[in-house]
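User: I'm putting together notes for a lab meeting next week and I want to include a structural view of one of the chains we've been expressing. I don't have a solved structure, so I'd like a prediction I can at least talk through. The sequence is below, exactly as it appears in our construct file.
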Amino acid sequence: MGPVDVMSEQAELDASAVRSRPRASAWLWRPWYAKLWWASIAIYWTGKLASYWSPVLDDAYSTAVAGYLNIALYPFTALMVLGVRFVPAWMEYYGWEWVEPSHDELFPKRSVGGYLDPMADPLDPRSPNHWRYLGNLRR
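Assistant: Thanks for the context. Below is the predicted structure for the 139-residue chain, given as structure tokens.
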């Protein structure tokens, strides 16, 4: 096996490592701060469950700080915040790009009567106002 073969094998291994599909667990669980956050979520909500039987915990979970912690330690908040870096990696793997919308997408053409929304224009045939009484015409 020559040095060229070894280098080509190494290049193939590097290419396969770069193109490996991104796993959500790499962003949602593997970093130390993610593990800390998920552990805090479990502890907080276990205490919240225990507050139904303990008046002391009930008083603690009725404070304003507990209201903020409800938001910060809500599991979907952790998914959204920790997943922010996952989305660009996932889009890069599948070849998607963030593109700016074109002028036509930003500013739609006006309808027949000059309205921006053709559904609200009584002069535009696409408006549902023309089709509302269609059932009465058949009688």
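A couple of points you could mention at the meeting. DSSP finds nine helices and no strands in the chain. The chain has a mean pLDDT of 80.

User: Perfect, that's what I needed.
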